[in-house]
Amino acid sequence: MKIGIIGTGNMGRILTEAFLDGGTVSPSSMTITNRTAAKAMDIKETHPDITVVNNAREAAHRSSLIFICVKPHDVYNVVQDILPSLSKDKCVVSITSPISVKQLESILPCSAARAIPSITNRALSGVSLLSFGEQCSEHWKGILHKLFESISTPVFIEENITRVSSDIVSCGPAFFSYLTQRFINAAVAETEIDKETATKLAGEMLIGLGDLLKKGFYTLPTLQEKVCVKGGITGEGIKILESELGTVFEHLFQATHSKYDEDLIEVKKQYSLH
User: Fold this and answer.
1) Which residues form a coiled coil (predicted)?
2) Would the annotation count 6 as a binding residue?
3) 96 to 89, 159, 163, 197, 264: CA distances (angstroms)
Protein backbone atom coordinates (compact mmCIF):
# COMPACT_ATOMS: atom_id res chain seq x y z
CA MET A 1 0.00 0.00 0.00
CA LYS A 2 1.28 3.44 -0.97
CA ILE A 3 0.69 6.27 1.49
CA GLY A 4 0.81 9.98 0.69
CA ILE A 5 1.17 12.75 3.26
CA ILE A 6 0.23 16.21 2.02
CA GLY A 7 1.58 18.72 4.52
CA THR A 8 4.48 17.94 6.84
CA GLY A 9 3.99 20.65 9.44
CA ASN A 10 3.66 19.68 13.09
CA MET A 11 0.96 17.03 12.84
CA GLY A 12 1.89 15.83 9.35
CA ARG A 13 5.41 15.15 10.51
CA ILE A 14 4.23 13.47 13.70
CA LEU A 15 1.98 11.15 11.68
CA THR A 16 4.73 10.37 9.19
CA GLU A 17 7.32 9.50 11.81
CA ALA A 18 4.86 7.63 14.04
CA PHE A 19 3.69 5.44 11.14
CA LEU A 20 7.29 4.57 10.34
CA ASP A 21 8.18 3.86 13.97
CA GLY A 22 4.98 1.84 14.39
CA GLY A 23 6.36 -0.69 11.92
CA THR A 24 3.35 -1.07 9.63
CA VAL A 25 4.60 1.42 7.03
CA SER A 26 7.95 1.30 5.26
CA PRO A 27 9.72 4.49 4.13
CA SER A 28 9.79 3.25 0.54
CA SER A 29 5.98 3.08 0.49
CA MET A 30 5.53 6.69 1.60
CA THR A 31 5.39 9.87 -0.45
CA ILE A 32 5.39 13.26 1.25
CA THR A 33 5.09 16.86 0.12
CA ASN A 34 4.97 20.26 1.77
CA ARG A 35 4.53 23.83 0.61
CA THR A 36 7.87 24.64 2.25
CA ALA A 37 10.00 21.93 0.68
CA ALA A 38 12.69 22.10 3.37
CA LYS A 39 10.31 20.61 5.95
CA ALA A 40 9.74 17.52 3.82
CA MET A 41 13.43 17.21 2.96
CA ASP A 42 14.27 17.34 6.66
CA ILE A 43 12.26 14.14 7.17
CA LYS A 44 14.01 12.52 4.22
CA GLU A 45 17.36 13.12 5.87
CA THR A 46 16.34 10.72 8.63
CA HIS A 47 14.43 8.36 6.32
CA PRO A 48 16.27 8.39 2.95
CA ASP A 49 13.88 5.90 1.29
CA ILE A 50 10.92 8.27 1.61
CA THR A 51 9.91 9.92 -1.67
CA VAL A 52 9.58 13.71 -1.58
CA VAL A 53 7.59 15.32 -4.42
CA ASN A 54 6.99 18.93 -5.38
CA ASN A 55 3.21 19.11 -5.16
CA ALA A 56 0.04 17.58 -3.73
CA ARG A 57 -1.23 16.24 -7.05
CA GLU A 58 1.87 14.14 -7.60
CA ALA A 59 1.70 12.81 -4.03
CA ALA A 60 -1.93 11.79 -4.60
CA HIS A 61 -1.10 10.23 -7.96
CA ARG A 62 1.55 8.00 -6.38
CA SER A 63 -0.62 6.97 -3.39
CA SER A 64 -3.74 4.95 -2.66
CA LEU A 65 -4.19 6.30 0.90
CA ILE A 66 -3.81 10.07 1.08
CA PHE A 67 -3.60 12.12 4.28
CA ILE A 68 -4.34 15.85 3.98
CA CYS A 69 -2.50 17.51 6.86
CA VAL A 70 -3.08 21.21 6.19
CA LYS A 71 -5.08 23.97 7.89
CA PRO A 72 -8.90 23.64 7.71
CA HIS A 73 -9.33 26.52 5.23
CA ASP A 74 -6.77 24.95 2.88
CA VAL A 75 -8.27 21.45 2.69
CA TYR A 76 -10.87 22.34 0.06
CA ASN A 77 -8.26 23.79 -2.32
CA VAL A 78 -5.98 20.78 -1.83
CA VAL A 79 -8.83 18.41 -2.67
CA GLN A 80 -9.66 20.41 -5.81
CA ASP A 81 -6.02 20.25 -6.82
CA ILE A 82 -5.67 16.48 -6.39
CA LEU A 83 -9.05 15.49 -7.92
CA PRO A 84 -7.47 14.48 -11.28
CA SER A 85 -5.26 12.03 -9.36
CA LEU A 86 -8.11 10.36 -7.46
CA SER A 87 -10.06 7.25 -8.38
CA LYS A 88 -12.85 5.30 -6.70
CA ASP A 89 -10.48 2.75 -5.17
CA LYS A 90 -8.49 5.36 -3.22
CA CYS A 91 -9.10 6.88 0.22
CA VAL A 92 -8.59 10.48 1.36
CA VAL A 93 -8.21 11.28 5.06
CA SER A 94 -8.40 14.74 6.62
CA ILE A 95 -6.91 15.32 10.07
CA THR A 96 -8.77 18.55 10.86
CA SER A 97 -11.84 18.66 13.11
CA PRO A 98 -13.91 21.54 11.58
CA ILE A 99 -14.42 19.64 8.31
CA SER A 100 -16.97 16.86 8.67
CA VAL A 101 -16.56 13.58 6.86
CA LYS A 102 -19.85 14.33 5.10
CA GLN A 103 -18.40 17.58 3.70
CA LEU A 104 -15.24 15.84 2.61
CA GLU A 105 -17.22 13.03 1.00
CA SER A 106 -19.36 15.53 -0.91
CA ILE A 107 -16.38 16.64 -3.03
CA LEU A 108 -14.53 13.33 -3.38
CA PRO A 109 -14.96 10.48 -5.86
CA CYS A 110 -13.50 7.96 -3.40
CA SER A 111 -13.64 6.76 0.20
CA ALA A 112 -13.33 9.51 2.80
CA ALA A 113 -12.41 9.50 6.47
CA ARG A 114 -11.23 11.79 9.22
CA ALA A 115 -8.46 10.90 11.65
CA ILE A 116 -7.62 13.34 14.43
CA PRO A 117 -4.23 12.44 15.87
CA SER A 118 -2.52 13.54 19.07
CA ILE A 119 1.07 14.53 19.72
CA THR A 120 1.15 11.51 22.06
CA ASN A 121 0.94 9.29 18.97
CA ARG A 122 4.57 10.21 18.30
CA ALA A 123 5.43 7.99 21.27
CA LEU A 124 3.11 5.29 19.84
CA SER A 125 0.72 6.09 22.66
CA GLY A 126 -2.49 7.96 23.43
CA VAL A 127 -5.68 8.06 21.38
CA SER A 128 -6.51 8.84 17.75
CA LEU A 129 -10.07 9.75 16.73
CA LEU A 130 -11.60 8.13 13.65
CA SER A 131 -14.72 8.97 11.65
CA PHE A 132 -15.74 7.36 8.34
CA GLY A 133 -17.83 8.59 5.44
CA GLU A 134 -21.01 6.74 4.50
CA GLN A 135 -19.37 5.55 1.28
CA CYS A 136 -16.08 4.59 2.93
CA SER A 137 -15.42 0.95 2.08
CA GLU A 138 -14.94 -1.72 4.72
CA HIS A 139 -11.54 -2.31 3.15
CA TRP A 140 -10.36 1.19 4.04
CA LYS A 141 -12.02 1.18 7.44
CA GLY A 142 -10.04 -1.94 8.32
CA ILE A 143 -6.77 -0.55 6.99
CA LEU A 144 -7.15 2.76 8.83
CA HIS A 145 -8.03 1.04 12.09
CA LYS A 146 -4.99 -1.22 11.82
CA LEU A 147 -2.74 1.66 10.82
CA PHE A 148 -3.74 3.83 13.77
CA GLU A 149 -3.71 0.86 16.11
CA SER A 150 0.04 0.65 15.45
CA ILE A 151 0.56 4.15 16.86
CA SER A 152 -2.33 4.69 19.29
CA THR A 153 -5.64 3.47 20.65
CA PRO A 154 -8.07 4.33 17.81
CA VAL A 155 -11.52 5.43 18.95
CA PHE A 156 -14.50 5.90 16.62
CA ILE A 157 -16.45 9.11 17.36
CA GLU A 158 -19.74 10.60 16.17
CA GLU A 159 -19.82 14.09 14.68
CA ASN A 160 -21.55 15.71 17.68
CA ILE A 161 -18.61 15.05 20.03
CA THR A 162 -15.81 15.81 17.58
CA ARG A 163 -14.72 19.09 19.15
CA VAL A 164 -14.75 18.01 22.79
CA SER A 165 -13.03 14.73 21.93
CA SER A 166 -10.33 16.66 20.09
CA ASP A 167 -10.01 19.05 23.04
CA ILE A 168 -9.27 16.12 25.34
CA VAL A 169 -7.11 14.02 23.02
CA SER A 170 -5.37 16.49 20.74
CA CYS A 171 -5.35 19.78 22.71
CA GLY A 172 -5.16 18.12 26.12
CA PRO A 173 -1.37 17.55 26.06
CA ALA A 174 -0.81 21.30 25.49
CA PHE A 175 -3.27 22.25 28.24
CA PHE A 176 -1.69 19.93 30.80
CA SER A 177 1.80 20.91 29.68
CA TYR A 178 0.90 24.52 30.47
CA LEU A 179 -0.53 23.57 33.87
CA THR A 180 2.59 21.55 34.68
CA GLN A 181 4.84 24.47 33.78
CA ARG A 182 2.82 26.73 36.09
CA PHE A 183 3.13 24.05 38.80
CA ILE A 184 6.91 23.96 38.35
CA ASN A 185 7.30 27.74 38.25
CA ALA A 186 5.30 28.12 41.46
CA ALA A 187 7.47 25.53 43.19
CA VAL A 188 10.59 27.44 42.16
CA ALA A 189 9.11 30.80 43.19
CA GLU A 190 7.89 29.66 46.60
CA THR A 191 10.70 27.32 47.71
CA GLU A 192 14.44 26.76 47.37
CA ILE A 193 14.15 24.10 44.62
CA ASP A 194 15.82 24.93 41.30
CA LYS A 195 13.91 24.75 38.02
CA GLU A 196 15.91 21.85 36.58
CA THR A 197 15.23 19.65 39.60
CA ALA A 198 11.55 20.64 39.78
CA THR A 199 11.13 19.93 36.06
CA LYS A 200 12.71 16.49 36.37
CA LEU A 201 10.56 15.59 39.38
CA ALA A 202 7.36 16.80 37.71
CA GLY A 203 8.14 15.00 34.45
CA GLU A 204 8.86 11.70 36.18
CA MET A 205 5.72 12.14 38.29
CA LEU A 206 3.61 12.50 35.13
CA ILE A 207 5.21 9.43 33.56
CA GLY A 208 4.52 7.44 36.73
CA LEU A 209 0.94 8.72 36.87
CA GLY A 210 0.41 7.60 33.29
CA ASP A 211 1.81 4.16 34.05
CA LEU A 212 -0.49 3.76 37.05
CA LEU A 213 -3.54 4.59 34.95
CA LYS A 214 -2.41 2.51 31.97
CA LYS A 215 -1.81 -0.58 34.10
CA GLY A 216 -5.18 -0.16 35.77
CA PHE A 217 -3.96 0.07 39.36
CA TYR A 218 -6.19 3.07 40.05
CA THR A 219 -8.86 5.25 38.50
CA LEU A 220 -8.40 9.01 38.77
CA PRO A 221 -10.76 9.32 41.77
CA THR A 222 -9.23 6.34 43.63
CA LEU A 223 -5.72 7.61 42.97
CA GLN A 224 -6.62 10.96 44.52
CA GLU A 225 -8.21 9.15 47.45
CA LYS A 226 -5.10 7.03 48.05
CA VAL A 227 -2.77 10.03 48.13
CA CYS A 228 -5.11 12.29 50.11
CA VAL A 229 -4.65 11.09 53.68
CA LYS A 230 -7.31 12.59 55.92
CA GLY A 231 -5.97 15.75 57.54
CA GLY A 232 -2.76 15.54 55.53
CA ILE A 233 -0.76 17.92 53.37
CA THR A 234 -2.20 16.77 50.02
CA GLY A 235 -5.70 17.51 51.26
CA GLU A 236 -4.73 21.10 52.02
CA GLY A 237 -3.44 21.46 48.45
CA ILE A 238 -6.67 20.00 47.04
CA LYS A 239 -8.67 22.58 49.01
CA ILE A 240 -6.76 25.36 47.25
CA LEU A 241 -7.39 23.78 43.84
CA GLU A 242 -11.09 23.40 44.61
CA SER A 243 -11.46 27.02 45.72
CA GLU A 244 -9.30 28.70 43.08
CA LEU A 245 -9.83 26.69 39.91
CA GLY A 246 -13.51 27.56 39.96
CA THR A 247 -15.00 27.10 36.49
CA VAL A 248 -11.73 27.47 34.57
CA PHE A 249 -12.20 24.23 32.64
CA GLU A 250 -15.80 25.05 31.77
CA HIS A 251 -14.52 28.33 30.35
CA LEU A 252 -11.79 26.47 28.47
CA PHE A 253 -14.32 24.27 26.65
CA GLN A 254 -16.53 27.29 25.97
CA ALA A 255 -13.57 29.07 24.34
CA THR A 256 -12.50 26.13 22.18
CA HIS A 257 -16.07 25.52 21.03
CA SER A 258 -16.53 29.21 20.22
CA LYS A 259 -13.45 29.17 17.99
CA TYR A 260 -14.62 25.89 16.48
CA ASP A 261 -17.98 27.45 15.60
CA GLU A 262 -16.17 30.28 13.82
CA ASP A 263 -14.16 27.75 11.82
CA LEU A 264 -17.31 25.82 10.95
CA ILE A 265 -18.92 28.94 9.48
CA GLU A 266 -15.87 29.68 7.30
CA VAL A 267 -15.48 26.08 6.17
CA LYS A 268 -19.19 25.72 5.38
CA LYS A 269 -18.91 28.51 2.79
CA GLN A 270 -16.42 26.41 0.82
CA TYR A 271 -18.62 23.31 0.75
CA SER A 272 -22.06 24.96 0.41
CA LEU A 273 -22.01 24.67 -3.38
CA HIS A 274 -21.85 20.87 -3.22
Assistant:
1) none
2) yes
3) 23, 13, 10, 37, 11
